[in-house]
Amino acid sequence: MARIVAGVTSSHVPAIGAAIDNHRTSEPYWQRVFEGFERSKEWIAKVKPDVCIVVYNDHASAFSVEMIPTFALGTAAEFPIADEGWGPRPVPVVKGHPQLAAHIAQSVILDEFDLTLCNKMEVDHGLTVPLNLMFGTPKEWPCPVIPLAVNVVMFPPPTGNRCFNLGRAIKKAVESYPEDLKVVVFGTGGMSHQISGQRAGLINSKFDHAFLDNLTRNPQKLVRMDHLEYMREAGAEGVEMVMWLIMRGALEDKVDEVYRFYTVPASNTAVGHIILENRSKGGRKAAARKPAAKSRKSAPKLKRAAARQKIQRIRS
Ligand SMILES: [Fe+2]
Asked: Same domain for 199 and 304?
């Protein structure tokens, strides 16, 4: 049986892609952004997902104002890199997983989520930048990717609640896939930013940190947040964060936050990144915990170890 082991959120700022492509990652401005993902790269190299489902938004590359699906699932065998005005990014073609994607489509649509199915689709920085941040710059991406494009560019985007419930439906779909696959779900975009208008450059770190806290511990607090609140608190483009709720809905209720990174700014955006592991579906911490958890006597020890890990995480 396939299983979702973890969720990752990551900003998908286009300038991060440009910094990678133009070999500027070691410049002081960019260094702190990329250093923040070094541990994440180590983490995902250990997890070795068989498939990643990447929730992102298209930026008028595959779609345009003439046609914008609310939820578009990539069911193709591969997804070429879009030309966003200065040629396609020099990154590998994204290979899909048509079998799992078709299975997700079947299950999720029968669960009454009306997905648009894309058997041909180019992918832009919204998908490729998070792949770079997590996997670096390999010759080939290390695993197949199923893109899920969400409309957050033309109002009305889907609600956070709708996104969370779609995540739940994706979880159910993946868990009913017969092949033994380890799946990681990415939620991308955010955090607070506004790229035009009087409030261009808006950053709200207090809101961002509270959002990350709730994403881990209390996502139900986020699912009812309406679009106006996202825009008021996190800027017009901050509404991208509804996509993170698809990732969170695809995880279990209780998760382990194994890493968090936040920095300001990257371009004119707050970069927020979090890694959440499922407790019972084979997350690394869950696997490490399993044998010890059988012994009642070891429970206090585990609690102390968890507290130590938490403190280390906060300090790092
Ligand atoms: Fe975006």
From this structure: no
Residue 313 domain boundaries? 283-316
Q: List all residues 6 or more positions away from 283 whose beta carbon is below 8 Å from its beta carbon.
A: 5, 6, 255, 256, 258, 277
Mean pLDDT of 7-36: 95
Q: Output the CA 13–ligand 1 centroid distance in Å.
A: 7
Q: Same domain, yes or no, for 225 and 304?
A: no
pTM: 0.89
CA of 59 to the centre of ligand 1 (A): 7
Omega cis (within 30) before 67: no
Active site residues: 125, 193
pLDDT band at 280 (very low <50, low <70, confident <90, very high): confident
Integer CA distances (angstroms), 267 to 48, 49, 115, 135, 263, in order = 30, 30, 32, 21, 11
Compute the distance from residue 191 Cα to the ligand 1 centre, in Å. 10
- With H, G, I as helix, E, B as strand and everything else as coil, classify residue 249: helix
Kindly report whether the peptide bond that precedes residue 28 is cis, defined as omega within 30 degrees of 0: no
Q: Do 163 and 291 belong to one domain?
A: no
Look up the CATH number of the domain holding residue 217: 3.40.830.10
